[in-house]
């Protein structure tokens, strides 16, 4: 059968780098496959994905061949090539260009020069397939992050591509919106037979959906197999990337499984039941926890805020306090006001009403959601050197911070040429260099691989042990559950609930960790993998 995509001895090098980024890749992706492309930060996933579409292929020296539907990528007619392969990037804001949903859906089709009656039909049936008819007249900027990404996908699918490439499309989505997006992808794959290649760090959601896994390491294919064979193989070799596997895999491994690892919450529950886990005692319902004793270092008191007079308030009467030596996670849906709250806490913007109260001597350091916002220099090392010079009070050590963040090897590289995960680590290095007393981190795990995430966990725990406060805005509930002492949820312009970390997750049925879902009713009080394996003993 004709492969949808095949690469033969494909090697690719960026102009200023010594070593090739992709090395001798030979690969066949069959028609209708759903491939999860994964691998450590900087392993070449984005570069490989972009190599599969002529219009966005990386610029540099390429050897070997890329065939799309059996034809050389660069020999195809331009219109065929543009429509045949769809591409969805991480940030919908960078891809959406029109004012309304309807215009966005028609934009690509008009560019292709299709006749109006074809455009109208395509738009109607695409809107119907995606269930977005009711959004037609809405302004794009009014949509939530998750809705924007669904519109982005719909606009790409309106071109009826046979192949769909996606580069971390859920990285900016809240956990519920991310799952919804991935389910739509599954439908596209199943109902239209479209070949899907998806680069994604969120393995727990994708492993149960995909048909095969392509694992890259240092620009080479290390594995290309079924999800279950891939999981068993990496666990066998004790590969550090295995940390990225879903909680169900780690729980089974922790409880002695060696071969058949459940990949979803549902299979994990069945696995536990097979092992004799029964309905647990009801367990004690955790009591809502009171704020710790002592004085907060930073506090929002009855804060109201809106960006413009004519707009609704993003925060209404919101109060929250942060204490010394605590990691406080803030979660909530896209657009619920988490980043806004962090900016208020940092002092970058002022509330319209209410007060941000900072104890004397408290120095906040803000990691913004877009790490590029912090970059001004030509190399990673210069970034840090300039920063240190600008903030003369800092006694942070550049080499030590680079070492701690694992970016010493990137010292001479241009920040804009880094991979997503590398950028995130460089931005965090800049923040840490300021030795802040309160760290305000907006999505620090976005785009970073499982190994870097583990390092980040230790770095943040150390910050806390050294007496600092960490405020962590995140969509990564597993990470929050392992790290935070307290967790608050934003909803409808205010703090909907705030609890001690474990109690927070235990009381939620939807907004909780996979471990908690897997053991619900079987083992009360389990929120992390460690909780479950300890419970068994
Ligand atoms: N335009 C560029 N110029 C020079 N080097 C680049 C460029 N883009 C990427 N690189 C380098 O190529 C390597 C692979 O980058 P790529 O973005 O493909 O990795 P990735 O696996 O997608 O990483 P991540 O998971 O962090 O997004 C990295 O070391 C990166 O720094
Ligand atoms: N600079 C801005 N100007 C106008 N409105 C803004 C601005 N920044 C954010 N908003 C709006 O404020 C609301 C809250 O946005 P915010 O970015 O704080 O949410 P969030 O919870 O951090 O979302 P996400 O999880 O998607 O990052 C949203 O409706 C958003 O559209």
UniProtKB/TrEMBL annotation:
SMART domains: AAA. GO terms for cellular component: ATP-binding cassette (ABC) transporter complex. Its main location: membrane. One of its GO terms (molecular function) is ATP binding. It holds the Pfam family ABC_tran. Keywords: ATP-binding, Cell membrane, Membrane, Nucleotide-binding, Repeat, Translocase, Transport. It is a peripheral membrane protein. PROSITE patterns: ABC_TRANSPORTER_2. It is found in: Cell membrane. Residues 5-243, 298-517 form the ABC transporter domain. Belongs to the ABC transporter superfamily. Probably part of an ABC transporter complex. Responsible for energy coupling to the transport system. This is ABC transporter domain-containing protein. The lineage of its organism: Bacteria, Bacillati, Bacillota, Clostridia, Eubacteriales.
